[in-house]
Amino acid sequence: xxxxxxxxxxxxxxxxxxxxxxxxxxxxxxxxxxxxxxxxxxxxxxxxxxxxxxxxxxxxxxxxxxxxxxxxxxxxxxxxxxxxxxxxxxxxxxxxxxxxxxxxxxxxxxxxxxxxxxxxxxxxxxxxxxxxxxxxxxxxxxxxxxxxxxxxxxxxxxxxxxxxxxxxxxxxxxxxxxxxxxxxxxxxxxxxxxxxxxxxxxxxxxxxxxxxxxxxxxxxxxxxxxxxxxxxxxxxxxxxxxxxxxxxxxxxxxxxxxxxxxxxxxxxxxxxxxxxxxxxxxxxxxxxxxxxxxxxxxxxxxxxxxxxxxxxxxxxxxxxxxxxxxxxxxxxxxxxxxxxxx
Length: 342
Known about the structure:
α3 runs parallel beside α6 (126-144). The chain has a two-stranded antiparallel sheet. The protein has 14 helices and two strands. The two termini are 15 Å apart. It has helices at 11-27, 33-36, 43-53, 63-93, 110-114, 126-144, 147-167, 176-191, 193-200, 204-225, 238-263, 267-274, 276-296, 310-333, and strands at residues 4-5, 8-9. A hairpin with a 2-residue loop joins β1 (4-5) and β2. The chain has one domain. It is mainly alpha-helical and 342 residues long.
């Protein structure tokens, strides 16, 4: 997902991506359910919409070139992180971690890894295969239809998404049951590129009002509809989930633009924004190691994290900061492991 349109860098998009990945990390802590609830409408829908926002079929060449590009940038990291996380899960989680009580056999994650599904050794990696399929399918749509025709097709995609979440209860290869919904957000981001970027150019006051208005709607609507989880097709009322998620994205965009106005462009924000895939793949393992250190070295009981907010926000921030040296090492010495070949 690039962050540059022409020669102009979209600064608020860097802030928005960092904001979204931060709350992905927070969601994998025992944070207060009330705090986490509205954030579930921001995290994964945003990343699919953002990918569509930056997609331009005219720049992508042939299907084979696009397939190769996406296999490198998404499937290679998927394989790399599972090669790291599976031994970690096998040795650490099954003996000392949260999975001890469940007594999983050693081979438990392997079928899911091989089929590109949600796997317990590194749960967030489902997003990479879901995004891969979403982009490949949408490439064909955009190759043969213009934006007006895709807009006409959109209700069909919504109905397919509804039928998928209503009637498919099994985990399909490459998260296809989720792709039926994620492609809706991808299409919205792509169709409404100009309008979304135009909103980003609104003034500071407009975005302050937007954040308060849409943020309030998001908060109360999420209480009504409940928590969502795209990897298991959990959306509450599907017809309510779609507009809430779009409202959440508008609120998030306004928050990101406000941050841009306050802090302007920051190189470290851009750097982390370019390396989000490392956070996606490694934050679970880093978080478990951090808990081990806080418990056995600093004697901080894990109960301080249970159903709290501030400790988990700090914990998540530290987890991301610990991954910055990893980003630097990987980019310098082994970028191909995360699909960077140039």
